[in-house]
Amino acid sequence: MPGAYEDYPFDSIADAGAWTVMRHRMNRKGFAHLYERFGKLSINLKCDPFEADFLRGIYKDLTPAYHMNKRHWNTITIGGDVPKDELRRMVKQSYILTARKTRADEENEDDEI
């Protein structure tokens, strides 16, 4: 993703057990949290709450987020039943949802109310 970088906020070194957080360079917000749990690679991604609930009903390897707000974040087990194209779409959506909002974005939100 453009302007993204890796961060390891919970570990002093980036080793196999470290949590990797992918962040926006502009606002430092994390949009993807990668970690290993129960021997499997997982990723937490932000999602619209209604879509999050819908997706949880479709994929068994997509659950309310581990260690995060369960209304707005999902955990996806990598290599599970979530197709790669769908996973890519969810990463992009998380990136968009956590991006810095511009004044135009905020004005458009006001117009929608």
If you had to describe this structure to a student in words, what would you say it looks like?
This protein is of the alpha+beta class and 113 residues long. Helix content is 30%, strand content 28%. The chain has one domain: Alpha-Beta Complex (Aspartate Aminotransferase, domain 1), CATH 3.90.1150. It has 3 helices and 6 strands. Strands 1-2-3-4-6-5 form a 6-stranded antiparallel beta sheet, covered by helices on one side. The N and C termini lie far apart (30 Å).
Features:
Aspartate Aminotransferase, domain 1, disordered C terminus, alpha+beta, 113 residues, 30% helix
- The proportion of residues forming helix, as a percent range, comes to 25-40%
CATH class: Alpha Beta
Question: What's the CATH topology name?
Answer: Aspartate Aminotransferase, domain 1
* Main structural class: alpha+beta
N-to-C CA distance: 30 Å
SSE topology string: EEEEHEEHH
* Rg from alpha-carbon coordinates: 15 Å
